[in-house]
Amino acid sequence: MKVIQWLGDRLSIIDQTRLPAEKRYVELNDYKAVAAAIRDMLARGAPAIGVTAAYGIALGAVKIETGDKAAFLKEINRAIQTIAATRPTARNLFAVTERMQRIVDSGQDVAAIRQALVDEALKVHAEEEAATQSISRYGAELIQDGGVLTHCNTGPLATTGYGTALGVIIEAHRQGKPIQVFATETRPRCQGARLTAWELQQAQVPFTLITDSMAGYVMQRGDVGCVIVGADRIAANGDTANKIGTYSLAVLAGEHGIPFYVAAPTSTIDASIAGGEKIEIEERDTAEVTHLGGVRLAPEGVSVINPAFDVTPQRYITAIVTEGGIIRHPLEKGIKKILKPL
User: Fold this and answer.
1) pLDDT tens, position by position, 52-108
2) Do 114 and 170 reside in the same domain of the chain?
3) Which of 19, 30, 95, 93 is closest to 60 using CA atoms?
4) pLDDT digits (tens, 9 = 90+) for 261-312
5) Residue 296, class by beta-carbon neighbours within 10 Å (0-12 exposed, 13-18 middle, 19+ buried)?
6) 172 and 256 share one domain
7) Which has the least CB within 10 A, 194, 240, 246, 296?
8) Nearest Cα to 114, choosing from 69, 71, 62?
9) In terms of domains, do 124 and 143 share one?
10) Phi-psi region of 222 (alpha: psi -120 to 50; beta: other; left: phi over 0)
């Protein structure tokens, strides 16, 4: 399944807002359309956001017709800034925009910068695909027979590759481990019910869909042997921002003595942030909470908050799985070691 395809003068992506009812590809013809697709969550998941952003900047460069370097730089910098402003939490987005900005700043002429941006976007995509394969292999070592609980969506749709947390689960199943997955619905946008359930069906992995509030119940019954989730940003000390509700799951897992794993590429780690308190949390439209499928559930005029993510302190995290290996406690030391060669 090609989640994202570079077509030279446009970008093709799966519209994830239509799944599972409709598998529909949309073509994005300029960087503004790419920015809108990220903001409106047609493309989502931290690694996939990074890849989409890279292609969006490359598309911006391709569509700038001027050969004058000053005029080109003005336009491409506007494209980078527009894409960087789409969503504030996922580190992959900023890792990519910073990476592309360095290419722009060091380029000699317009033609060279344009080609270098396209080449770099293709490289970003290939790196993320390769990273998810390694993450899946390393992480599968941690999965034992029995119940595995996961939250939100972390498969190919969210990564453009094999997947992070869901890739680990799929790989463990492929290895013949008799596992039973519990997938949370992941309100308010229901990525678990819509996307994770769909991807698990595609991979023929046994699973049960549960509401977010059922997690403690299945843990208390002894049905869950481990929890594994993805990440949108990981601080230098291991504190992890992920989909809202992750922190609650980590606390519940700790109470029940259940290992809690995070699976993410190193592009998600933000070594410039000491701890999770420095991570900016995206606040989304309150209609995502008051409505479901376009139908209003809550009374008019209710007070609503809608943070898209929360931060899980590193003390609740058993290990972090990256393409460079498994990071165990002390997490801060392990993160420094795994980032050193990069």
Assistant:
1) 999 999 999 999 999 999 999 999 999 999 999 999 999 999 999 999 999 999 988
2) no
3) 30
4) 999 999 999 999 999 999 999 999 999 999 998 999 999 999 999 999 999 9
5) exposed
6) yes
7) 296
8) 62
9) no
10) left
